[in-house]
Design goal:
The complex is a heterodimer. Chain A is of the alpha/beta class. In chain A, about 40% of the residues lie in helices and about 10% in strands. Chain A is built from ten helices and seven strands. In chain B, α1 (about 10-25) packs parallel to α8 and α9 (about 205-220) crosses α13 (about 305-315). Classes of the chains: A alpha/beta, B alpha/beta. Chain B: It comes from Muriicola marianensis.
């Protein structure tokens, strides 16, 4: 078990990776990536039980699905730092002939990724399918998934949420990144999501609110609690309140950096705010 | 002309159900999903024998496609079941991203395809599904002609690694292929050798093509009849060998002439061996309510229409 200080160092380095990747190709999605950095670090370094080598079927280990695929920078950084593929490959993000496509995919065979995502609203169904496969295989490991809050506007989610509650898919822990931002503005202005937790609850889920979604200890405690609640007849949902752009002050509390890259000057400021801890790629 | 005997009319969807029953017994990795149409897809026996390997998803086809994709992660071979319209058009992006682009081993099994669904009318009669599915990179597209072939295809696709669209129908149609046949994906079946015209048919129109060939024989016209059960990948070798001999072709399908088998054949011929072609297919139209036979006649998909198309293409060849 890593110390919180160690995990914080990893998170800081991941934030550097994110802004550098996006800056290099002048495209990509830094805001949501930064907002979920602590979640990814906690999940991959502290929560999930993982094999050393990647297999598509993931039998005998926990598996994770990213439904809001546009936050690929944080996903790629954490996968690379965990050793799924060479760190220097982060240099190829969004470039021709890269395995690190704009949105994650299995198509180029990138280890760590089990489904393509990007067209929103599909990941929960896939996670449910993988959870059902684990039950058939009598594999007691957990399926984790992450979804944007704006993404919940896609109707397929509610088919999936209804299914998981109705069919008691209790080896699934779905986390919602509740940053209340989407491309066109605040989620409550674009199409109000209201009380997301209550919506999951009435669909038969066990729901945990994670108020401090950028606090490593709070994330770890909540995900451990979620894991304890699994296997009890209900899928588990974590409503994780995050700050978009967390850790880079001018990107915080706004949707402006949803899909926009920093320029040279902005990159320098962002890197100043996040010192190199583990070595840049 | 080679004679084919109707062993008794049966629906192709029952061939699918029979294939699923057999798969349930012999392949423990096969699972099935259905969106509230168990009876229509003839899945009762599979479900009774394998309750743990069946997932009733309710009227939620998008979710069904995603769950199917997820079930492959862990080693299962999911067969989804619903009507063709809800198997394709309704869930195109789910198939595109979560199944085709992700390279998942999902078998999309679609009943009630085309006009022969009958009285329910155009909302349920999809005539665009072959086109939608064949455009997806990596997707295999199969349209079977009778009960026996549908059963054989259902068994065969379980052993094929990769996404498959299997299209079949609702009405009872002549069951004339060999019950012991082996189904080879991508390999055309030569039903009758002839020299004047090549008739290439898929699905319910294969039997109609044979009927047309018999009628043409009475008029001294020798028709080669090929059953193309696999529209993608297309057996170009068999098609080209035939048209090099006959010099003209009629394609027959219960589908829009835009995007279907006919266009795939036309592309092959244009590149390798251009010859006159006529299309027996719907003409960029929606369907309507009616009986299966009435619709096939009205929309020009029966054996009379095939015969007329042959006479027309022979004129152009001359």
């Amino acid at each position: 078990m890593a110390s919180l200080q160690d995990l914080a160092k990893i998170a800081t380095q991941v934030r550097r990776d994110i802004v550098r990747m996006v800056h290099k190709v002048n495209s990509g999605h830094p805001g949501g990536s930064l907002g979920c950095t602590e979640f990814f670090v906690a999940l991959y370094y502290e929560i999930m039980k993982l094999h050393d080598t990647f297999t598509m079927d993931g039998i005998g280990e926990d598996i994770f699905f990213l439904s809001n695929g546009h936050i690929s920078p944080v996903y790629y950084s954490v996968l690379a730092r965990k050793g799924y593929f060479p760190l220097e490959e982060l240099n190829t993000f969004r470039m021709l002939d890269s395995r690190l496509q704009g949105h994650p995919t299995t198509h180029e065979g990138l280890p760590g990724v089990r489904i393509a995502s990007g067209s929103l609203g599909q990941g929960m169904s896939v996670a449910i399918g993988a959870a059902l496969a684990k039950k058939l295989n009598k594999d007691e490991h957990i399926v984790y998934s992450l979804h944007g809050d704006g993404e919940l506007q896609e109707g397929q989610n509610w088919e999936a949420i209804m299914f998981a509650g109705s069919k008691k898919v209790d080896n699934l822990i779905a986390t919602i990144d509740r940053n209340s931002q989407q491309i066109d503005g605040n989620t409550e202005d674009v199409m109000a999501l209201g009380d997301v937790g209550e919506k999951f609850r009435v669909f038969g889920w066990d729901v945990l609110e994670l108020k401090e979604g950028n606090d490593l200890k709070a994330i770890i405690d909540t995900l451990k609690d979620a894991k304890k609640r699994s296997g009890k007849g209900k899928p588990v949902c974590v409503i994780m309140h995050t700050v978009m752009g967390n850790g880079v002050d001018f990107m915080m509390h706004t949707h402006a950096w949803h899909g926009k890259a920093p320029n040279d000057e902005q990159l320098a400021i962002a890197l100043d705010q996040n010192e190199e801890t583990l070595g840049d790629y | 002309m080679k004679k084919y005997t109707d062993q008794g009319k049966k629906d192709t969807r029952s061939g699918f159900g029979a294939g699923m029953t057999e798969l349930g017994r012999k392949n423990p990795q096969v699972v099935s999903l259905c969106a509230d149409l168990v009876g229509s897809l003839k899945l009762d026996e599979f479900i009774e024998e394998n309750p743990d390997r069946f997932f009733q998803v309710g009227i939620a086809e998008a979710n069904m496609m995603g769950i199917a994709a997820g079930l492959t992660i862990g080693g299962y071979i999911p067969f989804t079941g619903t009507f063709a319209n809800f198997s394709t058009g309704r869930v195109y992006d789910q198939i595109r991203q979560s199944i085709a682009y992700s390279g998942k081993n999902v078998k999309i099994c679609a009943s009630h395809a085309g006009l022969t669904l009958g009285e329910d009318g155009a909302t349920h009669q999809i005539l665009e599904d072959i086109g939608l599915m064949k455009m997806l990179p990596g997707m295999t597209v199969i349209n079977t002609c009778d009960f026996n072939q549908t059963k054989a295809a259902t068994l065969a696709i379980a052993d094929h690694e990769g996404p498959v669209y299997l299209r079949f129908g609702r009405p009872k149609v002549p069951n004339f292929t060999d019950p012991e046949q082996e189904f080879h994906i991508g390999k055309a079946v030569m039903l009758n050798e002839g020299k004047d015209v090549t008739v290439i048919a898929t699905g319910h129109l294969v039997w109609e093509a044979l009927q047309a060939a018999e009628a043409l024989e009475q008029e001294g016209i020798s028709a080669e009849v090929i059953n193309i059960h696999t529209i993608k990948p297309l057996d170009e070798e068999t098609i080209l060998a035939s048209v090099r001999k006959t010099g003209c072709v009629v394609t027959c399908e219960e589908h829009n002439y835009l995007g279907g088998l006919g266009e795939s054949v036309a592309r092959t011929l244009t590149v390798h061996h251009p010859v006159p072609q006529e299309f027996v297919a719907t003409r960029d139209t929606f369907g309507e309510s009616g009986t299966s036979d009435q619709l096939m006649e009205k929309y020009g998909l029966d054996n009379k229409a095939i015969k007329e198309a042959v006479l027309q293409v022979l004129k152009r060849k001359a």
